[in-house]
Amino acid sequence: MTDPFGFLTTPRRPVAARPSQERLGDWHEVHAGQTLLPVVSLQAGRCMDCGIPFCHNGCPLGNLIPEWNVYAAHSDWGAAAERLHATDNFPEFTGRLCPAPCEAACVLAINSEPVTIKNVEQTIADQAWERGLVTPLPPERLIGSSVAVVGSGPAGLAAAQQLTRAGHTVAVYERADRIGGLLRYGIPAFKMEKRYLDRRVEQMRAEGTVFRPGVDVGRDVAVAEVRNRHDAVIVAVGATQQRELPVPGRELDGIHLAMAYLTAANHVTEGDRAQPAVTAEGRHVVIVGGGDTGSDCLGTALRQGAASVVQLDINPEPGDTRTESQPWPVYPRIHRVSHAHEEACARDGADPRTYSTATVRFEGDTAGHVRALHLTEVEPSARRPRAGTERVLRADLVLLALGFCGPERDTGLAEQLGLTFDARGNFARNAAFAALREEEQPGRSVADGVFVAGDAGRGQSLVVWAIAEGRAAAAAADRYLTGSTDLPAPLAATDGPLTA
Fold first, then answer.
1. Dihedral, CA of residue 200, residue 202, residue 207 and residue 212, to nearest 10
2. Is the Cβ–Cβ distance between 265 and 275 less than 8 Å?
3. Is residue 307 packed enough to be buried (19+ CB in 10 Å), middle (13-18) or exposed (0-12)?
4. What is the phi-psi region of residue 100: left when phi exceeds 0, alpha when psi lies from -120 to 50, beta otherwise?
5. How large is the greatest C-alpha to C-alpha distance in the chain, in angstroms?
6. Residue 320, Cβ neighbours under 10 Å: how many?
7. Which N-terminal stretch is annotated as signal sequence (predicted)?
């Protein structure tokens, strides 16, 4: 076990990020080049090795956190990596991108500071790669069945890797020019450099997974053709239908959806273009939306040299501690400062966020380009405009980061597969990830081999939920094709985060 008194004698110490001004000068990860060892081993030693480790339940993958904490505390990276990969296909992704609900569920978090689980996870994964411990794991034999995975985000990649290793022939279809989905073009390089994604794709290719980028199923190729080629289909296209802001002036130039902006920036860091199609350089930027996508836009705009950046959030500013309605081990909604917010504070001397505000309209110049945003304060509970509080922000670039509302409806997938939508706008499915068809009653199982995984069925969620869904959908597809399965299924499609 770890040091039995480690949680008493060793204070929490997250791995320090690079200085903000240094980070703003490049697109490398915020922790790039920072020393992880021996800091992480000492932090892993804070794990209490609980009799009932609630971190298992805080993580939808059921990661064996106390087990790999012990190995990391003793610098046994081989054993730690084996335990980590037992439940997570891509721990270097989750270690960088997941907001760590496992830490909120750590028993230490009841009255102290939790273990730095996220830092430990990333370090184990990185050490495994650096030490040559991560190798392709092709199946011993092929079992003669073929599966199409539509979408190459974390859910699609996890499902594909699980099924390939089980002996199925798997082809991953991706409409973008590169594999990775939102991991590729939606996540900025300063949060995860794409070389980590590239090496996983190469590992999967060596295992036997076939990748078909640049193929938009439903448009470039008919769904019927894909169905004829394969014995089962996993739909993992994500929830990429972005929410709009239907207010006067929305049609003005200079107002863009966040994902178009982030994709353009990622094409530059990939080396495809010298300059992005949309840039914040020298502009007064307003980001509408207070979530992670808005934070990603903020960090991108700062690196592009924005003259100023303001981020608007319709929600009230959360407090610094849990409320009674969000007790341990629930992941609480508290005031958090992302690395992008740190960078804005360091550059401009103030937090860029404005809370409890709503956009009323946009104002443009004679050329039809946005020049100002009119906003108003809102009542925290009802989100109704508060009279007499309207004001104007200078804006010549507006980024709409209002979240997502399910898979896109005009791709041809839903129509050609006969899929239905649930009340939240996601593809309807039963608890076993099987897609529901138009002719079926809600809750009835489908036996035609179409499964829905990830945000396409769950709605906008976290990378760790997407990987868990991909693994569970792979187990469902394997059972459908072979009659049984040994693949792990960490959750049902109806499972959700811990709630009070």
1. 100
2. no
3. middle
4. left
5. 71
6. 8
7. none
Mean pLDDT of the chain: 95
Angle, CA of 53, 54 and 59, to the nearest 5°: 115
Query: pLDDT over 90 for what percent of the chain?
Result: 92
Beta strand 370-377 with 391-394 is antiparallel
With the CA atoms of 419, 422, 426 and 427 taken in that order, what torsion angle do they form, in degrees rounded to the nearest 10?
-20
Q: Do 8 and 111 touch, CB atoms closer than 8 A?
A: no
User: Which helix (H) or strand (E) element contains residue 171?
Assistant: strand 169-174
Cβ proximity of 335 and 310 under 8 Å: no
- How far apart are alpha carbons 235 and 496 in whole angstroms? 20
Stated as kind and residue range, the H or E segment containing 372 is: strand 370-377
pLDDT tens, residue by residue, 106-164: 999 999 999 999 999 999 999 999 999 999 999 999 999 999 999 999 999 999 999 99
What is the amino acid identity at position 119? N
Question: For residues 260, 265, 268 and 272, what is the CA-based torsion angle, rounded to 10 degrees?
Answer: -10
> Hunting for tokens 């900025």 — which residue is that?
188
Give tens-digit pLDDT for 372-427. 999 999 998 788 899 999 999 999 999 999 999 999 999 999 999 989 999 999 99
CA atoms within 13 A on the CB side of 380: 4
Cα-Cα-Cα-Cα dihedral sign, residues 248, 251, 252, 257: positive
**pLDDT tens digit sequence for 434-444:** 999 766 545 44
Do you find a cis peptide bond into 136, omega within 30 degrees of 0?
no
What CA–CA distance (Å, rounded) separates 123 from 94?
Answer: 11
Give the pair of three-digit tokens for residue 209: 């997974």
Query: Whats the size of the chain, residue-wise?
Result: 500
The SS3 call for residue 24 is coil
Give the position of tokens 């193929």: 215
pLDDT of 443 reads: 46
